[in-house]
Amino acid sequence: MRRMRGVRLAAGLFALGIGLASCASDTQPGGDGGTSGAPAPSTVKVGLAYDIGGRGDQSFNDSAARGLDKAKSEFGVEVTELEAAQGETDAQKEDRLRQLAESGHNVIIAVGFAYEKALSAAAADYPEAKFAIIDSAAPEAANVANLTFAEHEGSFLVGVVAGLKSKTGNVGFIGGVNTPLIQKFEVGFEQGVKAVKPDATVQVKYLTQPPDFTGFNDPAKGTTAANGMLDAGADVIYPAAGGSGAGAFEAAKAKGAMGIGVDSDQYNLPALANVKDVIITSMVKNVDVAVYDFIKAVKDGQFKSGLQVYDLASGGVSFATSGGKIDDIVPQVEEYKEKIVSGEIQVKDTK
Amino acid sequence: MRTLSARSVLLGLAAPLGALLFAVLVCALILIVSGHSPVTAVDSLLTSASRPRTTVNSINSAIGYYLAAVAVAIGFRMKLFNIGVDGQYRLAAMLSAALAGAAFMESLPSFLRVTMTVVAAMLVGAVWAGIAALLKVTRGVSEVITTIMLNAIATNLVAYLLNPDRLAEAVPGSNNISTRPITEGGQVPGIAIPGSTSALFGLVFLAVAVGVGYWFLFGRTRLGFEIKATGLSESAAVASGVSVKKMVLLSMLLSGAVAGLIGLPQLLGSSHSYALDFPPGLGFIGIAVALLGRNHPIGMAFAALLWGFLDNSSTSLDIAGVPREIVLIMQGVIVLSVVVAYELVRRYRVRAEQRDVGRALAIQKSPEEVSV
Fold first, then answer.
1. Which of A70, B80, B209, B269 shows a CA-CA span of 20 to 30 A to B232?
2. Is A351 part of any domain?
3. Count of domains for chain A
4. CDD domains this protein is in (chain B) (predicted)?
5. Which of B57, B175, B282 sits opposite A11 (nearest CB)?
6. What is the mean pLDDT of residues A126-146?
7. What pTM value is reported for the model?
8. In Å, how far is A141's CA from the nearest CA of chain B?
9. How far is CA B208 from CA A338, B36, B121, B172, B202, in A?
10. B174 falls in which pLDDT band (50, 70, 90)?
């Protein structure tokens, strides 16, 4: 059901490339924001349009929902949440955004790059409302903020962890769906592994090809792919594959190998409690922070349009230490983090 | 032979309307049990029906659903289950989008470009369905199996082709992969509707033409009659000189050709390129719509409009606090109950006809008995 998830991730990565090019040395998100702060609206009514899967997908949408919940409880703002359906057209997405604007919502967040075309059409007709789109550098408009993430930087760091923790010098990357965007997870991860272990082997496997997006939601495929890698000598698996990752962790657990989480701090996810022991770290993507920051900015009259990159420097992506399995190497990983933030290491985002 | 008596019309409508009513009742019950108000749901459905934009979007969705239903229905008439409509239209949409967007097409006149796109889509759809047909007539492989498998193959083929090294390009500033965008001359302009921000797809006329063609084929031509006859009884058709293999091949090719058209209204009217987010799954919706519309050209049009309306009203329901999933439940219940309702109506019709015949015979017989 979560067919667009990979695209979403990929979109973010792509946007990242653009973002980094223009504001690589920024320490704050919001490098090339266009307009200055607008006056704070008297009442804030937040509308959030999810991508397919919606609240409860244990992943991307849930992260956006966390940010929304936090804003709701802190600011007491009124919120409406709408969900996308499978196989819908741009017209239906546009209708969703328009209905939110028509029903008086003045802060509207579109989760996922799939909303790009729809937002471009809708935002133009509601100049008073402030829009945000997650994971897309397009469209550019005076009332649109583009919130994107530097997933390849985060992937580099978990690559460093994998390289340091691997005893066999052989690690695996499982991509959910082979899109250019998920390839950026792969590229960052591989670069990180090679940074600490230049002669290491990185096995790469994508579960499905687009437009078959089941690779993001099929744990059985994750298990099969992980077993293949473990049999070929890998001892650390990094599945950037949404719900399929659970299957990879199970395979790792059965063979006494290690796994790396993605998007959330997966060690702490209740749904993964039975395999948490193998999750040594996670590449955390703070969509919740982006959503919360955006709502807060509009509420305070600090809205900024344009590209805002959530990267390592701004804490938009990070690596998790829950479980204490990498306590011994945290200083080394932090060192690499500093190097990326300072620009000493440039992480690639394309093959 | 179809005499249009009041009873046959009523019986024809009884099943779909009964199923619809049953589905509404089930949904109302579910809403009440889950603590939502059916009144709110109906109210927001009415609100969305009165919004021009939703109406236009509903019709636009229905255009694709209708074409899909016709494609499926052509197979149904021959007792062939073409589950591969989905793969046929996705492959056709992708390849015809690549053709329509190709640079050499830009110098051609608009009419020629659109015609070439439409013909290319039909050919691709027909070829893809033709593989299943060939396997059936030469090797006797069930088309149910082959068309499902061909769906998966189409998915992988499209994935292979939709790559910057082959038929697609990565557009800077976008995060999608798509075929080269179709320039204005290759598009089909929409029909502006007052009060609506979306335009009605220009290819609505294509759907109407396909509907008329479908009616003409099965109502007025020998080929249509032979396809129907073969579907009803293969042995009877063979006895009267119909080549079953030829009929299988022809009906699958026709079904595939129509399937090829499914994506075009969206492609040429709105998307203008085949991208990762091109709407999938229309082929399966077509099966439901053909079932509900009883393979009838007008029945399927109503069914497609109903489906389109339900799909496009779900956001209004969501905003009103009614879970949008109720739309899926409703569509599911309609499909299940319509199948049951058809069987009930069929049995009733058979009994009623037997009664009629019995009565007619009794009337004829009685004078003879008297004379004996």
1. B209
2. no
3. 2
4. TM_PBP1_transp_TpRbsC_like
5. B175
6. 93
7. 0.86
8. 13
9. 64, 39, 18, 38, 11
10. low
